[in-house]
Task: structure prediction
Amino acid sequence: MTSLYDEVQAAPAAGVEVRRITVNVNGTDRTVDVEPRLLLAHLLRQALQLTGTHSGCDTSGCGACTVLMDGRPVKSCTVLAVQANGREVETVEGLATASELHPIQEGFKEEHGLQCGFCTPGMMLSAKALLERNPDPTEDEVRWALSGNLCRCTGYQNIVKSVLWAAKKMREQNQEA
Amino acid sequence: MAPLDELKIGGMGASRRRVEDNRFIRGKGRYVDDIVLPGMLHVEILRSPVAHARIKSIDTSAAWEVPGVRLVMTGETMAARNLAWMPTLSYDTQAVLATDKVRFQGQEVAAVVADNPYIARDALDKIVVEYEQLPVIVNPIQAQSPDAPLIRDDKENQTSNKIFDWEIGDKEATDRAFAQADVVSKIDLHYPRSHPSPLETCGSIADYDRSSGKLTVYMTSQAPHIVRAAVAMVAELPEHMIRIISPDLGGGFGNKVPIYPGYVISILASILTERPVKWVEDKSSNLISTGFGRDVYLEGELALRKDGKILGMRMHTISDHGAFFADAQPTKFKIGLMHSTFACYDIPTGHLVSEGYYTNKAPGGVAYRCSFRVTEAMFFQERMMHAAANDLGMDQAEFRRVNLVRDDMFPYRTAFGFLTDSGQYEKCLDVGLEAIGYSTFKQEQEEARKRGKLLGIGISTMTEPLGAGNSREYDIIGIKMFDSAELRVHMTGKAILRTGAKTQGQGHETTWAQIVAHELGIPADDIVVEEGDTDTAPFGMGTYASRSTPVAGAAVAMASRKIRAKARKIAAHLLEVSEEDIEWELGRFYVRGNQERGVTIQDCALAAYSNVPDGLEPGLENTSYYDPPNLTWPFAAYFCKVEVDAQTGVWDVLNFVAVDDCGVRINPMIVEGQVMGGLTEAYAMANMQYMTFDEEGNCIGANYMDYLIPTSWETPGFELHEVVTPCPHHPIGAKGVGECATVAGPAAFVNAVMSAIEHTGVRNVDMPLMPNRVYQALQTGQDVSGMPPVLSD
Result:
């Protein structure tokens, strides 16, 4: 069991009842004792040390903390950890296998879809949700699907190209399979 | 032997895929907030809710009672160690935690150190501060009033809110030019306050080890060596006992150059608790308290001859610096390099007067993807050019063509004394005009107007000074603006390179290796690049003002050349000929006249550690400190075509053509990425992104609901073109590029919208060109000036 309070060797705030939750993160059940107010982003980053999920704005404005919950993109800075109890959460750390990158990861590298890398995990997960429901999106559909994720470095043009690159590769892979 | 193919080894000109991406796409970047040290505590900061008030009392007793709280700090805690105030990068002082007054909304008042950030936040709520509110100043016009309250009453001899007067140019010659003018064209602009707002906010982890006396600080800094020097001065710690580590940065754009109170607070908290202390601000704190950009009133005029020749220019700027003068800019230039304005045009004379004021707003930085006020200078220049062409009744492109510095005039001395060194300005103009379809636009515009559609085209051409030093003229708090690189070639021909710059997403880990590959023929994949650790990197001034490639990049080339010079001696020894008989081709030395007989750079590296000639030191490493002879002067010509909806004032970009000449491109893919990113920030400022204040000094723009940043949905696509004029004094012919698009971009968008609506008699709409402002201008035929009105009821 991983406990947030084991990590920092401290008690929860006075008078706060700790909840035990189990969240399936990237395919593995993780059981954690948390304060009810703990945010999902902080559960992932602090308790589970999955620091690929970035906290950008804490107000669901920037999308850097986007993860997939039961396959749908959510901004983990405005989801309570207890709301993820019993659900499946996918983070950037779950995209690649031990030997292979996900086509979306390849696409971002190939088309120079990132610079500082801070928005990238959230962008890729929003893109994954899009491509799972729409394997052959238009440029406008990609732009709309990513419009909840801010980027300050790239100007989006190459991010859109990255997602279209990945879509093409995923379609080709599906045809082969 | 076939010569090495430079593109195949990832040398100059290769669009090499980025090395740093390998960790970023896996979520394995290491940003400050990702770092956890054993026993680490967390500090949160209480900020002032009001813009100007005397602090009557601070009661922290209840905060101390919260379980898990380790330390509560106020101005008194800081003052006891002489840390209540700290010096800024512009020879002013800034409060770390307020002791007397708060001077802007969001100013740091108290801090709580606790076991986790949630507990620290709980305790902040228990601190009671009693404020006695004072009258508030929210712009430099108010600040000038004789009745204005004195914001900086802490400073001896400060009797008004004025920070500086600064002047450059030849007033008499300019007066004469205006006396001879056929036409005088004027414009009056406001460049609104903006915020760089990197996605990652600022933060630090201070780790003071009492047993060794060593202070290690992980910090979001674009310039870690400057921070080390400043911490040595402020905290009175010996410099060798301070280690600043700037890990991966989630963007910077100038926001992460200054030294903020939060850093100092985390350092003192670590010294007092003897535990590592992490401070990571939230987005609102970043937006309301850290370095902004712009916030300048710009007015001026051009003296014009009937044929379009500019005879002289006058300019007057009034800048708002907030409560503390905290600009990071060269010491001798109070308003930065504002006097680089009109540098791409041949203008005989000019006169610039600048004033700076304190207000009850957050202090600067004043950098935002722009070097030292150059953005404001070029925005004024291109809006002025647009207005002047109209006043003369001349075509926009033709007016620029008449006045642009010609290729045969370089090196060219500008009216304000800068020396521009190279460029093909007219060629860039022509490439862009062709690409945007300029020749048929007038007709297109008229036909569209008949159908009730408003089309406009905007041009912006400029050269800007990038890559400070030289060190004779440029310093920050006395530290000269050179930069450095250290290259170590290992026995097997692999290498590690460290520089004094600090990447924030620009891709130094990729491009620096390409310069080494170009100079030495070592494949780029065999070179690892490290930056940001002051214990290991050579001293440098960091990355801002587009100075990395012009200065540190040059140092990389020079360090590589020193390595090559030593390798040549080793090659002569290995080939048993004299050094004079050795020739170099990429990656290899050979005997003159016998190309087959040679040794590779890798052979030389091995010999440097295993078979050194008598009298030569073993090893193959070197350091270069590069002091540039001049700034670099890239040129940009931007062309924007828009359609304005007359019913709503909404404008859409139909086409945007960008022609950039940044000299030799190390990695074209990365250069294009920089240009597209910069154009997006230009679009943001032209369209929606601004920060304003109500009359009580409340910041409007304190979160991403109020501070609008364009998303993938509204950001237009950009068509990029290149022209290459190598920089004559840079070792690899490169010029800076990171900020060109943000500097030249805004005027292209604004000029395009004005071109669509100025038939109604409107001369200017100040940024941001939000639909309601454009609509108002269309309806009234009147200018829309200043900041968008914000109600404060």
In short: The longest helix of chain A spans residues 157-176. The beta strands of chain A are 19-25, 28-34, 66-69, 72-75, 88-90.
